[in-house]
Amino acid sequence: MRFKSRISRWGAASIGMLAFLGCSADRKSPSGFRLPDGDPIAGLAVVQEMRCHACHRIEGHDELPAPIADPAVPIALGGTVAVLPTDGKLVTSIIHPSHQISSRYAHDMVKSGDLSRMGDYSETLTVRQMIDLVAFLHTVYEARVGEPREGADWRMTRRGG
């Protein structure tokens, strides 16, 4: 009886440990990723300084020059989306744009070889600029009524072009 009791405790502990390990996030998980509050007005200045508008149309900001990229980049920033982008999704899209590229777009419109056409901003932006840029980008996205969830791939919607 005592032996069975030890086996059941060992079995329960093993199952608990496996469940914990199976559910724990790996080091690349966005779980728990949060940026401090940024300044959306300073973020708009980052958009202008980094010339994001040269490739992307930015929803609600017609004062910015029209995109001039050739071929045109079909990915607009902002608008009404099913799922609001998280801080982690926005940061990843800026510093590692090749991480996830929708297959819905023509290859030459979004890729150069196997990589995104978007430049590498990992050594260009300061942390403060990134925080402010993300704060600005949050102001140009709006959740569809009845769908205010966060987290899915918000870039999959084709916009204007």
Kindly provide the radius of gyration, computed on alpha-carbon positions and rounded to a whole number of angstroms. 21 Å
Mean pLDDT equals 79
Low-pLDDT windows of residues: 17-21, 154-161
Q: Into how many domains do the coordinates divide?
A: 1
N-to-C CA distance: 72 Å
What helical percentage do the residues reach?
Answer: 25-40%
Overall description:
- The structure is a single chain.
- The protein has 161 residues and is mainly alpha-helical.
- The protein has one domain: Orthogonal Bundle (Cytochrome Bc1 Complex, Chain D, domain 2), CATH 1.10.760.
- 37% of the residues lie in helices and 9% in strands.
- It is built from 5 helices and 6 strands, in the order ααββααββαββ.
- Strands 1-5 form a two-stranded parallel ribbon.
- A hairpin with a 2-residue loop joins strand 3 and strand 4.
- The C terminus is likely disordered.
